[in-house]
Amino acid sequence: MADSEPLPQTAEIPWISPPPVFILTGDELIAGTASAVKDFWAWGMSNLRTNTLRSMLAEYLVACAVGAQASPRIEWDAFDVQIPEGRIEVKASAYLHNRPKLERRKSGSRIAPRFGGSYATHVR
After folding, report:
1. 71: which residues sit within 8 A by CB, 6+ positions away?
2. Burial grade of 14 (CB within 10 A; 0-12, 13-18, 19 or more)
3. pTM, to two decimals
4. Which of 1, 63, 81, 95 could be cross-linked to 88 through a Cys-Cys bond (beta carbons 3.0 to 4.6 Å apart)?
5. What per-residue confidence (pLDDT) applies to 24?
6. Positive or negative CA dihedral for 52, 54, 55, 59?
7. Which residues of the chain have pLDDT under 70?
């Protein structure tokens, strides 16, 4: 394919579409190692005060509260939790962080209705 030719649509290139995601148990082995997925989780995700993990934990707690934890989290979707009644965007903040604070700051988020696209359709 020459540089000037457009790329074929995704359906024509099966390797460009990721396989479906499913909930892992943690006991799955990581290929080429003697480790399981739960070993990676313990190594990389033990500090729940980091900004990214605190947000993921908040999303998980909301998903559990509304019975939506059976579906895996989608990283770049326009919302955090999907339920039959609609979509939920989760916000998290904290006074305790992974790093020392030099001063006390007000914690909080701006909450307003939001309309976004979808990870599946690549529309924003």
Report:
1. 63, 82
2. exposed
3. 0.68
4. 81
5. 94
6. positive
7. 1-15, 101, 104-124
Euclidean distance between CA atoms 61 and 55, whole angstroms: 10
Tracing tokens 């990214």 back to the chain, one arrives at: 52
Q: Please check whether residue 92 is in contact with residue 61, taking contact to mean a CB–CB distance below 8 angstroms.
A: no
pLDDT score, position 118: 62
DSSP the chain: --TTSPPPPGGG-GGGSPPPP----S-PBPTTSS-BHHHHHHHHS--TTSHHHHHHHHHHHHHHHTT-TTSPP-TT-SSSEEETTEEE------SS-SS--SS--------------BTTTTB-
